[in-house]
Amino acid sequence: MIGEESLNEALVLVSCDNAVYSPLYLQTASCINIGSKNSSSYALVGNAVVASDLAETCTVVMVAMLPKTKKKNYQVTFQEVHQQLEYGFELSWQEYSCPHCRRPSHCYPLNSSKTDYLYAYSTVALVVAFTRVTGIPLVIIFLIYKWRRRHQSAYYNIEEFLQNQTLMPIRYSYSDIKKVTEGFKDKLGEGGFGSVYKAKLRGGSFAAVKILGRGGSGGQDFMSEVATIGRIHHANVVRLIGYCSEGPKRALVYEFMPNGSLDKHIFHHKQSSLSLEQLYHISLGVAHGIEYLHRGCTMQILHFDIKPHNILLDQSFNPKISNFGLAQLNQPGGDHSIATMTAARGTIGYMAPEMFYKNIGTVSYKADVYSFGMLILEMTGKRRNQNAATDHSSVYFPSWVHNEVSTPGTPIAVGEVTEEEDDIAKKMVIVGLWCIQTNPANRPPMNKVVEMLEGDLESLPLPPKPVLYAGETVTRNEEESSTSSYMSSMCTQSIISTVSK
């Protein structure tokens, strides 16, 4: 902002056709010759010079600035003007109307009023303030818009999938789900997928409603279950009655299993009420169910999560396979036995070794065979075996079981049982050992597993002793067997912890 008193004055160089005799006009002919020989050159100094002071025969050649002197205009000589031009002129500011004038470098003419300055400055401030105030909400609105579009896209994919399905179960609204569960009153269980509640349908029958969590994989798990269970009708596979899909709210309605899951019966602290005969029929029913998934449908279904928690029992203790959130559909025929996997899936302790180590073999339906083998080995003991990790952490549970079953006269069943019941337990153990062979090629398909369970014990050959990984050499002596190679402690502990808890 220029100060109230000017620090400079104007210098006007003119050229006149005729001589001008005035104290305001300083003769410059002795120094410069701007025009022709017939013209005269003059200099006018001072801020008081106005256009009316210019003679009619004169024209302006140049205007410059000079430092202001204390002399009056007509007292200045042209020699002093020349010296002032050599010195130059100053450009200075003074605080005017606002102490912040110099900081933002806002310069205004001297005759600008305080109101003009404040108006100009406040306009800029208002623009900046408006941008800051509205900018943050606009960014938040944009992020919410992007988030909603992304989730609406996921919801649209689910809706499109449901519309393309044939033979679909009943579709319930979320209000219907709340009504049949009485506001989610009776909770049956909870897991990583969400929670399960008991429901009473309109016809008076009971059902189990699984409310899927809102995690990242909730939509994929939902579509996977509907795509698999929705097309399955088998006595040993849980029946999907209906479903609910309203935006992020998703639920699955299953037939109710009054005896809960198998793990509550075989891992209970007290003695299980299930007899070996019942456990045998449960294992045979599960085998029939897995065989149907692998061979009985138009699409081959790989479950990838066979374990006691996912085996439900009806009022007569008939088993039904449930929880198809990790299932995968394969085209039958050709190379259908090989599954395309982007990541390992399943539960540690029941997962086949090829899920972790690609050099063992390709992932296929044999992964379900392995999980079934671990399942019936646990069922035989009715609890997670405590002896597997008693002496050494390197003791491999299947090797310990193999030693037990291969030793003549050693009882297999736990507790006081008859000889017939012990034979049932031994048959289940031998079948389980065949199923958990490390090399997938050595595991029997599920139709063979069913034949082995239904056949005689005498016709069952003892399988090779299980090893920790394919290619491992096993040395035996009279007292114990030990492995000559080392397996990572994480894999060993995961297997032992599953059978020792």
Can you tell me about this structure?
With about 500 residues, the chain is an alpha+beta fold. The protein has helices at about 80-85, 115-165, 175-180, 220-230, 265, 275-295, 365-380, 395-405, 420-435, 445-455, 490-500, and strands at about 10-15, 25, 40-45, 60-65, 170, 185-190, 195-200, 205-210, 240-245, 250-255, 300, 310-315, 320, 330, 475, 480-485. The chain folds into 3 domains: about 10-85, no CATH class; about 165-255, Phosphorylase Kinase, domain 1; about 265-500, Transferase(Phosphotransferase), domain 1. The chain has 11 helices and 16 strands. The strands form 5 sheets. The protein has a 6-stranded mixed beta sheet with strand order 5-9-10-8-7-6, with helices on both faces. A hairpin with a 2-residue loop joins strand 6 and strand 7 (about 195-200). The protein is rod-shaped, with a radius of gyration of 47 Å. The two termini are about 85 Å apart. InterPro entries: Kinase-like_dom_sf, LRK10/LRL21-25-like, Prot_kinase_dom, Protein_kinase_ATP_BS, Ser/Thr_kinase_AS. GO terms for molecular function: ATP binding; protein serine/threonine kinase activity. It is a single-pass type I membrane protein.
